[in-house]
Design brief:
The complex is a heterotrimer of chains A (378), B (332) and C (262). With 332 residues, chain B is an alpha/beta fold. In chain B, helix 3 crosses helix 4 and helix 5 packs parallel to helix 8. Chain B is elongated and about 65 Å long. In chain C, helix 2 crosses helix 5. Chain C starts with a strand and ends with a helix. The chains are: A alpha+beta (378), B alpha/beta (332), C alpha/beta (262). Chains A and B meet through loops of A and helix 7 of B. Strand 10 of chain B pairs antiparallel with strand 14 of chain C.
């Protein structure tokens, strides 16, 4: 990315914000498995929650390259905050902006983009993970509303979100073509948030079950048309993957930063361990990989901005490579830290735990390989 | 153009009618400069009910004390004090004017120098004069990373504010002779536009170890039972007690006082590392301290690698003796 | 509506500065330029007045063209407008010549309040605020920890060593603000994007100060830097491991006294 003065100023802002607001509580929210609501509020105050959307809806008029940079910078210090942000923007605001009617945009975007409301996205079910066609949540049209019954699992921002994009079968006979998308407000009767998952990493992120018991969603909250849900979900996830790839990139970058600092300080055999060739070569490999990931992520973000048809492929490559880089890099960084790296005194073990999820959610690495090979063999 | 400007004038800062130490420090330096430049040393004493204090200034080296005693000078207010000092300087044409770099001095001096249309050098830590009367004023800049020597070649008086605690005061000599001159200043009260609403004494504030000039830092080698020894030392030095992560974890001191990677980064003038081994996490938080004094039983302790003064020994034994030594020096 | 002018300066981040140990000069390469922290706190004070009572906040800076960056930053934080004084005629100015130029520029505006930072981290003089106030012929309140506005008076808490003076004065006045007293807000992202894409920063030359050239820059500076040098390098530390406690205490006390730490 060419560093314009605008971008430089934006980077400075992000760096200051992350240093002062995100990093100091990263260990604490992990330890306490606490959702960083106060950080989200601060992010809203400076406008980050509406970053890549037009000013007319309450956004900042920025683009996806800036947004990707925001996620990676935040995730360098705290991947939990990174995913809460990504879920809000990519998985809730974006589909409303992209597929919503003007009325829906006017109703939801200003509040979401200003951060008065937080967003979430509910697609996954116990029996519908990678294979979304296994949806069992049903939506039946009754007069001027749909009655929704069923449940979702592993929903990021659950319990804190005010608006959920949820998916349900409106016509079971049509398979994935029978899935529809809805905008659900959290205060709707019959809607409850179920048990919270206890996770390996991103432990401050709220990941819960959603339960729908005769939830009446007004007809005007159908997002897109009936039966378009699967397509909306997939297109949304293409964008979401840019977000998660950015998160993974940030984790890798953060781990390298911490490690560089540590190896210069830590002495063994009378020398800082940075003087040993093993340390140097490890860092060289990790840095080169992370830079490659960065370029793929920037390419994907650019594709999202330009409406490039190959977004799906580019996002899949970025997510696959960045996620695997994050896992690889953090594991090797823990090794360079040695015993200290295994303790919670340093952030590096947390980064390793946080990295793993990036290979799983919003499409596992295997799904990304399916997408990439599909495009290659086309 | 520089003809007719002579002598050294020192602003004697008062608070609540009492002359502050900085005034005596300035007289110490001022005496030296006056002697080098074969001129006289005057103190300007401005305030309300301060005349009785004038003699002290003579005992500390002034040849003359010029007193302006007026009700309007009861509290420090910029315009009132500028008018008083401007009146004297404008009549006397000093070669050099020294003012303390306190919050009062740094408010007064620039306003005064601008009124006099002369140069002012801030917060000097070193002053050297030539017999010709030229003054070389050295001060830190760039956060103390650079020292600069400033001159004021074409305008008089040469003015500077001087950092408190740097210059040495003379031994008080009651037998010294000098004059006390009282001056009546024709104040222009129409220019007094700032009013005092209230004066609040600072309450005991929250510990902020980042702001402390001296930190006495406690490590696991000290132990809870001996913390009071460090507190005594801190009291004597007007210092703040801090500590390593280990003693915070042990509940010996509160978290707000923790130095290091997971605590605060500090850069005091003096850092005492007492019974601190010097884990890298700790060092990361204090390595930029100006002067580091370490005491530790273990002569291979890491802390000695960065200490300016390292003492291999027992904190419990040394610290009480150190407190006594400091008291002795202060008493001198 | 209150009209507030805030003077801001672009400075090298002195925390990042290193000294060439041989030449004793500053290594400025790679040192980021930032808005002076006290000035930023001053801007925050102005923006809080704006939030509370409504105000037009205009920032003024003096420096090279690149100082436009901090003006943009100020606008992204919430200032309404910004002016940069940039002219080689200002070069080499000491605090009095700087104050003369600022005073000249300020006279182009209508204002109720001029806010400055207490001091800049490169010069640490704290002189430009009071000197500018004197040249403008209006009162100053320095070392301010807070500024409020009630019944036509500015109420300022002036914080000195051991006490706080609560002072009041009518417009127009100059207030210099303590950096640690106010945590500045962050730039707003929407404003940041807008200021870079849509806003032109006003750049003024010396002419706008209506000041004779001999009062500006080096010519207008009564003080001159004779020489500058790096701080003496830290002597290699001494470790003493053969002292009895009494001797150790003496050594430490003596060192503290010699270095004027007592």
């Amino acid at each position: 990315m060419i560093e314009t003065p605008e971008l430089k100023a934006f980077k400075t802002l992000l760096k200051d914000f992350v240093e002062n607001e995100v990093k100091p509580i990263a260990a604490e929210i992990d330890e306490e498995e606490r959702f960083p609501a106060e950080t989200i509020k601060k992010m809203a105050d400076i406008g980050l929650l509406g970053l890549p959307f037009p000013v007319q809806y309450g956004g900042c008029g920025g683009d996806n390259k800036m947004y990707s940079l925001a996620i990676s910078t935040i995730s360098k210090a705290c991947a939990t905050t990174g995913v809460a942000y990504s879920a809000h923007v990519s998985l809730c605001c974006q589909p409303i902006y992209q597929f919503g009617t003007e009325e829906q945009k006017q109703k939801y975007l200003p509040k979401l983009l200003k951060g008065e409301w937080l967003g979430a996205f509910g697609l996954t079910e116990p029996n519908a993970g990678t294979d979304a066609s296994g949806q069992q949540t049903m939506a039946v049209l009754e007069g001027d509303h749909y009655v929704v019954n069923g449940s979702k699992i592993f929903i990021t921002n659950a319990g804190y979100a005010n608006v959920y994009i949820i998916f349900a079968m409106t016509d079971k006979s049509k398979g994935v073509k029978g899935i529809s998308a809805f905008i659900l407000e959290s205060t709707t009767p019959g809607f409850t948030v179920g048990k919270k998952e206890k996770k390996l990493g991103i432990r401050g992120s709220s990941t819960c079950e959603l339960i729908f018991e005769n939830v009446k969603i007004p007809k005007e909250n159908l997002l897109g048309k009936e039966g378009q849900g699967f397509s909306i979900a997939m297109k949304t996830l293409d964008g979401g993957r840019v977000g998660i790839a950015s998160q993974a990139l940030g984790i890798a970058q953060g781990a390298i930063e911490e490690t560089v600092k540590y190896v210069k300080e830590r002495k063994q055999f009378g020398r800082p361990i940075s003087a040993f060739q093993n340390t140097q070569f490890e860092l060289a490999d990790m840095y080169a990989k992370t830079e490659a990931a960065r370029l793929l992520v920037e390419q994907a973000a650019d594709a999202k901005d330009t409406g490039d048809k190959s977004l799906s492929l580019k996002a899949a490559m970025a997510k696959l490579f960045a996620a695997e880089t994050a896992m690889n890099v953090t594991t090797r960084c823990v090794q360079l830290f040695g015993g200290y790296g295994y303790t919670r005194e340093y952030p590096i073990e947390r980064m390793m735990r946080d990295a793993k999820i990036t290979e799983i959610y919003e499409g596992t690495s295997e799904v990304q390989r399916m997408v990439i090979s599909g495009a290659v063999l086309h | 153009m520089l003809e007719g400007y002579k002598d050294v004038y020192v602003f004697a800062e008062t608070r609540d009618g009492k002359i502050q130490d900085i005034a005596f420090e300035l007289l110490g330096k001022g005496r030296e400069i006056a002697d080098i430049t074969s001129s006289k040393l005057h103190a300007i004493l401005v305030g309300y009910n301060v005349s009785k204090e004038a003699k002290k200034l003579i005992g500390y080296g002034a040849d003359e004390v010029i007193v302006v005693d007026d009700k309007c000078l009861e509290n420090y207010l910029t315009e009132q004090y500028v008018q008083a000092t401007y009146h004297i300087i404008n009549e006397r044409h000093p070669n050099i004017v020294l003012i303390g770099a306190t919050s009062i001095g740094r408010d007064l001096a620039p306003r005064l120098s601008a009124r006099l249309k002369t140069g002012l050098t801030a917060d000097c830590t070193k002053l050297e004069a030539e017999a010709s009367g030229a003054l070389f004023m050295t001060r830190p800049a760039f956060g103390g990373n650079l020292m600069a020597t400033i001159v004021s070649p074409n305008t008089r008086p040469q003015m500077s504010t001087v950092r408190p605690g740097v210059m040495q005061k003379l031994h008080y000599d009651e037998s010294r002779k000098g004059e006390v001159t009282t001056v009546k200043v024709p104040f222009d009260a129409s220019k007094f536009k700032v009013e005092v609403v209230e004066i609040k004494r600072e309450n005991k504030k929250q510990v902020k170890i980042e702001d402390a000039k001296i930190l006495v830092s406690c490590g696991r080698g000290v132990g809870k039972a001996n913390l009071h020894l460090l507190e005594d030392l801190a009291t004597e030095l007007h210092a703040t007690v801090s500590g390593s992560r280990a003693v915070v974890d042990d509940g010996i001191i509160e978290q707000a006082r923790q130095v290091g990677q997971t605590g605060k980064t500090v850069r005091p003038n003096v850092y005492f590392a007492l019974g601190i081994s010097g884990a890298i996490q700790h060092i990361a938080g204090m390595e930029n301290s100006e002067f580091i004094i370490a005491i530790n039983k273990d002569k291979f302790a890491n802390i000695f690698q960065i200490a300016d003064l390292g003492i291999v020994g027992d904190v419990k034994k040394i610290v009480p003796l150190l407190v006594e030594e400091i008291k002795k020096i202060k008493a001198q | 509506m209150l009209k507030i002018l805030v003077c801001i300066k672009q400075v090298p981040d002195t925390n990042e500065i290193k000294i060439d140990p041989v030449k004793g000069t500053l290594i400025r390469e790679g040192v980021p330029s930032i808005m002076n922290p006290d000035d930023k706190a001053g801007l925050e004070a102005a923006l809080r007045l704006k939030d509370k009572y409504g105000a037009n906040v205009t920032v003024i800076s003096m420096g090279p063209m690149q100082a436009q960056e901090i003006i943009r930053e100020a606008i992204a934080m919430g200032a309404d407008d910004g002016y940069l004084l940039s002219d080689f005629k200002f070069a080499g100015a000491d605090t009095l010549a700087t104050s003369t130029a600022l005073c000249g520029a300020i006279k182009n505006f209508e204002y109720d309040l001029v806010i400055m930072g207490r001091q800049a981290i490169d010069g640490d003089t704290a002189q430009v605020g009071p000197e500018t106030a004197e040249l403008l012929g209006i009162p100053q309140i320095s070392y301010a920890a807070s500024i409020d506005y009630k019944d036509g008076y500015f109420i300022v808490e002036r914080k000195v060593e051991d006490r706080i003076y609560v002072l009041k004065a009518k417009a127009p006045i100059v207030v210099t603000v303590l950096g640690e007293s106010m945590k500045p807000r962050y730039m707003n992202v929407a404003r940041l994007i807008d200021v870079y894409r849509n806003k032109q920063i006003n750049v003024w030359t010396a002419e706008k100060t209506n000041t004779p050239a001999e009062k500006l820059g080096l010519k207008g500076s009564p003080t001159q830097v004779k020489e500058s040098f790096g701080k003496q390098l830290k002597a290699a530390g001494t470790v003493m491991d053969n002292l009895d406690p009494q001797e150790a205490a003496k050594v430490i006390a003596k060192t503290l006294a010699e270095k004027h730490y007592l």
